[in-house]
Amino acid sequence: MIPSTNFMYRIRPRSNPSTFLHHLNQTLNSFFLPSSGSRSPFSDFASDYQTVDECRRQEIREEESPGSEFDFKAYMLEKIGVVNQALDAAVPLRDPLILHEAMRYSLLSQGKRICPIVCLAACQLVGGDESTALPSACALEMIHAMSLMHDDLPCMDNDDLRRGRPSNHVVFGEHVSVTAGYALLARAFEHIATGTKGVAPGRIVRVVSELARLIGAEGVVAGQVADLKCGGNGQLDMGVEQLEYIHLHKTAALVEASAVAGAVLGGAREEEIERLRRYSRYAGLMFQVVDDVLDVTKSCAELGKTCGKDLVAGKATYRS
Amino acid sequence: MIPSTNFMYRIRPRSNPSTFLHHLNQTLNSFFLPSSGSRSPFSDFASDYQTVDECRRQEIREEESPGSEFDFKAYMLEKIGVVNQALDAAVPLRDPLILHEAMRYSLLSQGKRICPIVCLAACQLVGGDESTALPSACALEMIHAMSLMHDDLPCMDNDDLRRGRPSNHVVFGEHVSVTAGYALLARAFEHIATGTKGVAPGRIVRVVSELARLIGAEGVVAGQVADLKCGGNGQLDMGVEQLEYIHLHKTAALVEASAVAGAVLGGAREEEIERLRRYSRYAGLMFQVVDDVLDVTKSCAELGKTCGKDLVAGKATYRS
């Protein structure tokens, strides 16, 4: 899948080739850049790697030598398959049945699997074996699924539709849904601790610490609370700074955790971890910008979730 | 506090003296045993350590040599102070304020701190330094606080009173309460991973794995779901076996996690861990039996929570 001659990310000589992160960045950029010569809004962090112009030159080189072309879509489909299979095995159907059904309903529903794939790609990027990051990749998807179940609850966004299906609490009831959310969070940490093989225990402890911090009161949860405080108050004139706080915490923190976990498990040096942290944080923010735009430009059927809901709720978004 | 001549638990020569677990057991036993000559309902597991008769002889020896008497109440008060101080530092008041206020409201409210103290005592019992287990002890209380907030939610037990004060969701709203619960759970794992010092990382990974398993879909959450399934259905004729399943999971699993975490961090051998696992599981079950009896024999003011609620909800208890 990955051309062996492509050393796009020259972090250190032993780095394995991986163009996934570059292509993810380009996919996000493509929503905003009319021509490849424009400066990316993320040029500050991108300068750690390549400028947009350099990316374009790289693209041209790839186009000129089709044998080494990176097939982004095929890569994503392959990794989604790997992750889905691992998720299915990580949360098997067992007693209590209704609890595990609720956990699996949200966990195995059709999703982009961005966080798990960022984790696997970051591990590979720094020269690690992808398999060492697979349990953490699954854990990230468990946490993501939990946060979506949580967001949809009647006491939160009160959303009945998620990934093209009725939300978890609509199917299983609010009490089972809240409980299954806690169970997924606990299972995520258990899976990292028991499933990660071939890595020094100190690195596993580091992953637990990074992940727990970034999803907790300093990360995802902080963003959720700030978002709730603004929701429905018609704060459409909220400053970009405040909006950025919400999305850096609510969305980007999990992408950051994904890249950092993969890098740590792949054996990255501290400066490599920090570069990937910076990259992934802003890629996560960009993901949210795209999501906000899609929320008002796409139909519910295309999105698989209730569209225009932020507008209805009077929430500030990048679109507003 | 602990008499240096008392080697009650002769697990191995290097064991430090600790009579806490023995006294905890006796405190629980005292609810049921009219005379010290009776057999404990937990005699099977107790035989790993001492029979009730042996305990009584030990008591007599202690009474005869008052200089070495173990002051259970003073020990508990001292450890509660240590734990409370550590909890206060572990979850400081910071932004977002409402989130941290909600976390601290439940975490720092007056509680028995049984789980943290079992953790510290187990660590000391196997020869470890109590300070190595303090972050895990705090994590256990965070998880316990989270589970109480969760239990009290309108979609769960819908309880307005907890530890003598309005429940968390009554004060902060359901949305903040659910979110603060997730944040406490995440903080628990972060605190174990970042706060534990002087222990091989492999043992920290083991604690994360044990704790996550015992509070998740195989432990506490499984018990909560089984309890909810039975609640309000008037299943007062439920068999003891089913009732035991609920309480072994909902209550005893966290006590088990406490003892196992302390033992692992204290450097226990595998057979010592398994003995403490067995002891603590049944001590936890006994705790629930006592709780069920108190629920119908004590007033709300004495309990600091809504009393008789299981009876009203039509839930089966050991009393029924």
Automatic annotation (TrEMBL), chains A, B:
According to UniProt, this protein's pathway is: Isoprenoid biosynthesis
SUPFAM superfamilies noted in UniProt: Terpenoid synthases (SSF48576)
One cellular component term (GO) for this entry is: cytoplasm
**GO molecular function per UniProt:** geranylgeranyl diphosphate synthase activity; metal ion binding
| Biological processes annotated in GO | isoprenoid biosynthetic process
Q: Which UniProt keywords apply?
A: Magnesium, Metal-binding, Transferase
The coenzyme or cofactor needed here is: Mg(2+)
The family annotation for this protein states:
Belongs to the FPP/GGPP synthase family.
What name does the UniProt record give this protein? Heterodimeric geranylgeranyl pyrophosphate synthase large subunit, chloroplastic
Q: Source species, please?
A: Sesamum latifolium
